[in-house]
Fold:
Amino acid sequence: MSRKTPLEELRTRRERARLGGGEKRIAKQHAQGKLTARERIEKLLDPHSFDEIGSLATHHIHEFGMDDKRFPGDGVVTGFGTIEGQRVAVYAQDFTVLGGSFSEMQANKISRLLDLAREAGIPFIGLIESGGARIQEGVRGLAGYGRLFTRNVLASGVIPQIAVVMGPAAGGSVYSPALMDFIIMVDKTSHMFLTGPDVIKTVTGEDVTFEELGGARVHNEKSGVAHFIAANEEEALQLVRRILSYLPPNNAEMPPRAQPKSPPAELVEGLNHVIPEEEDQAYDIHDVLNRIVDPDSFLEVQPHFARNAVVGFARLDGWPVGIVANQPAFLAGVLDIDSSDKIARFVRLCDAYNLPVITFIDCPGFLPGVGQEHGGIIRHGAKVVYAYVEATVPKISIVLRKAIGGAYIAMSSKEMRTDLALAWPTAQIATMGAEGAVRILYRRELAQAEDPQKLAQEFEADYREKILNPFVAAELFYIDEVIEPKETRRRLIRALHVLRSKVQTNPPKKHGLMPV
Structure:
């Protein structure tokens, strides 16, 4: 029997690496409606742009019958490619190889890739499907998690990090995605949890399914762990491409400009009539945003979580911006624990990657209640204040209707280093709304009046004229300008043109103590 030449040996090993766990396991993966690791990379990247590293690496465990379970690549495919011509680093765990279990070699490969991505200043993408740590490796795999988590933290805010959970992510495997900038989950096929249903059943007696415990909808709607939910894997991979279109490759560069587009003139004109005449009547903030930003450019982040706040990316005159807005159509746009966390994190993300932040305000204040107070609304609300003050990117705020009490302060008020504070004529800026203020200020007069309802209405009208309207704030120069709503897009574009060269720094320090 003739020996293989070195070239033949290389080709044989590469073919073994390409097949992962073998044809039968690949067929099983397909039968579950899932792509293989290599197929996912091919669909994510530009055609023929992927260059693999570590394809021949294998584990070095000889106990527990592992000698005959050595696969080239050791269950993870790592390398570099391009997305719309932009360089990226990507890894994909291969569930056909030992269930994608996380090993010492996986840690070495992914950590090496992340080191190179950070040093090169390019985005890092993880396509995750793992049953957790490889039990046979004991402390080796656990130490590997530590090495990877360290690199996730060091790269945070330096290069974009995106995790796409495309199957299970259990135990320690959930923390690397949790340390990244975005988590995308695939509906009905991806799950994230620290302890699985069997363990929970044993320890607490609770009977729960994989989907109920850590499915895509749970983490998009309830926990807030995930940022996007995709109907299938292809949609998830397209989301990655779209997210990256708004972001620079690293924190030292500016976001890329796209072809400018303008909304139809009639949509813009309609802004003058979008706020209902009744101050307590709801409306959808998306109707405002879609009349201002470039058409089809708004990508909402965490759309199913804390729906009283809306955050996401958009473009103005082709330039990427971060959007923060209250949502009057849900809980009247009030700030609570979850929406505070959602806003604060998004503002910090925009600041890290040089995206201007534009804040649209219609908020009656912080949500009252024992549950909120005991849950730490003070601490969580302080995160919003901290994030806005800390951010050095251009910041513009627009009061659409209500900016009452703490909501005025927290939502990018001029006093918190906001560059331009605007308001619509419908704005209401005060410590309290008219009805509540009158009940306190004129409690004695109302109690003695023959017609307290009529007198209250008179007092409320006086309060609106003297305190609540935006012209008082403009006269005191807490609002830079009151504008017609239809002027908003033009004013924002021109302001951002001026602010694009803004330079602002924070005091020298190791880091601040954000209330977490």
User: Anything to note?
Assistant: The longest strand covers residues 161-170. The chain has three domains: 6-244, 265-427+469-499, 432-468.
